[in-house]
Amino acid sequence: MTLGAMEGTIEITATRTSAEQHCIEPNCGARFGINERLYVCSQCGGLLDIERTTEDDAETLRTVWQARLASFDPRDRSGVWRYRELLPFTESAPIVSLAEGNTPLYDAPRSARYCGLAALRLKHQGLNPTGSFKDTGMTVAVTQARILGARTVVCASTGNTAASLAAYAARAELQCAILVPSGQITNAKLAQSLDYGAAVLELEGNFDDAMRVIRELTEDESIYLVNSINPFRIEGQKTVAFELMQQCGWRVPDHVVVPGGNLGNSAAFGKGFKELFDLGIIDRLPQLTIVQAEGAAPLAHLFSDSDGGRFTADSLLPDARQLAPVKYPNTLATAIKIGAPVSWKKALRAVLWTGGRVLSVSEDEIADAKAIIGRDGIGCEPASATTVAGIKQMIQKNLIEREETVVAVLTGHVLKDADYAINYHRQNLYTHDSESLPGEMRRIEGNYSNPPASVKATKAAILEYLKREQPQQ
Ligand SMILES: [Zn+2]
After folding, report:
1. Rounded to whole angstroms, what are the CA distances from 26 to 157, 231, 400?
2. In 10 A of CB 31, how many CB atoms?
3. Chain-centre distance of CA 64, in angstroms?
4. Count of Cβ atoms closer than 10 Å to residue 66 Cβ
5. What does the pLDDT look like over 196-237, one tens digit per residue?
6. Contact criterion met (CB below 8 Å) for 462 and 455
7. Do residues 96 and 380 make contact, with C-beta atoms less than 8 angstroms apart?
8. Distances from the Cα of 73 to the Cα of 31, 65, 96, 104, 310, angstroms
9. Ligand 1: distance of its center to the CA of 25 in Å?
């Protein structure tokens, strides 16, 4: 490795690659060295993208990535670092890894029938080391924290980010501080963060309040912020698009559908697909659809206000249409209960690049879709189920044809929110949403609930019960 002409630019002699950070705002476009500690553009406050150029051609990259599937090198065993030619690091980077990625792409026939599709595949990012999609970004961001010499890493989180950062910080032997909105983190996620040794600080207020205070904190040099505004996390998460396409034999599905919360994941998918397309590794882009929960759907509102069609790349100019934050985001899908998503411009850009759309689904739709995904033997946390609910809605509106190829991305493990699942199946799941009477909670009617049964402790009673309750297709 040698340093390039520009300060902080990496140049690897073997493959002639280089990386830098640049502002996504079209009328700014400021450029920065890869190791400048920035979270947003220092000139205009815009979001930063990491740009890495490579001289490797499509055939070489596909061949190398394929060969690594049979390798035992820890970097090759990681579903993120396997694609390191497109990551902004040198060969000697001090990688912090938990063998993340490598998540299955499941065929989900029952979910497909529920949606009205001939077939549906589910890419389950909830099967990462800490049970959520966050790990693919965290391995890269914590590696960068190590390179920058940070002593403490912090994030504000509704839970999955907290659990993931806590684990990777522990691996890197860094201090980790988690800021969570008080009472808004599930037990499972809290348990993980505590077990991995993080300092968990419960704040009054919601997730957006936590975001604000954390930005103030990072003015301290020894602290490195690892929220989804961090462009290195997006770099890690974009590799999910690479892994997905490799699993598809580089045959691009018509649609890829992702849940939308803070929108870093949607942004990362868009960036990943676009990089593959620009390199000639895939021959077209899948339509990227983002599905938000109705009570926390600012991007879906912005998108529907525009009829979906009036946006162009130019409308991402800072003075153009702005996202109106949802002041009191409300959904039982806590992982996407976010009213002011920081990555909305990048996510909208991804939707525009791919000709996709943004929509929202109700609490009832999420709850039933989640149960159906469970019946495929797969399971997921509530936020993930927005995808299947969204696909069903798009089929009903003729926005997806029955025979089209569709991949839905599940982002969290079913055990991330066990209480939700139990309450749904016991018909005890309550929400406070637009359908509720003022000041009252509304019960969500579970159409696929599967409550536990009380049966006498005799062979005859059990056999009779099983005969009566034979599952139907
Ligand atoms: Zn800028």
Report:
1. 30, 17, 32
2. 15
3. 26
4. 11
5. 999 999 888 777 777 788 878 878 888 999 987 899 999 999
6. yes
7. no
8. 34, 13, 14, 20, 48
9. 6
DSSP string covering 203-271 = ESS-HHHHHHHHHHHTTSTTEEE-STTSHHHHHHHHHHHHHHHHHTTTPPPSEEEEE-SSSHHHHHHHH
Q: DSSP letter for 457, please.
A: S
Average pLDDT value for the chain = 90
Residue 182 contacts by C-beta under 8 Å, 6 or more apart in sequence? 202, 203, 204, 205
pLDDT digits (tens, 9 = 90+) for 155-195: 887 689 999 999 999 999 999 999 877 777 778 888 999 99
Cα–ligand 1 centroid distance for 346 (angstroms): 14
- Residue 322 neighbours by CB under 8 Å, 6+ apart: none
Alpha carbon of 226 to ligand 1 centroid (Å):
20
Report every protein residue that has its C-beta within 5 angstroms of ion ligand 1.
23, 25, 28, 30, 41, 43-44, 46
The rounded Å distance from CA 44 to ligand 1 centre is: 4
Q: How far apart are CA 146 and CA 152, in angstroms?
A: 10
Whether 254 contacts 322, CB under 8 Å: no
Ligand 1 center to residue 210 CA distance, Å? 24
42 CA → ligand 1 middle, Å: 7
Q: Which residues pair with 180 in a beta bridge?
A: 202
Q: What are the structural domains of the chain?
A: 1-55 (no CATH), 105-131+231-420 (3.40.50.1100)
Query: Is the pTM higher than 0.85?
Result: yes
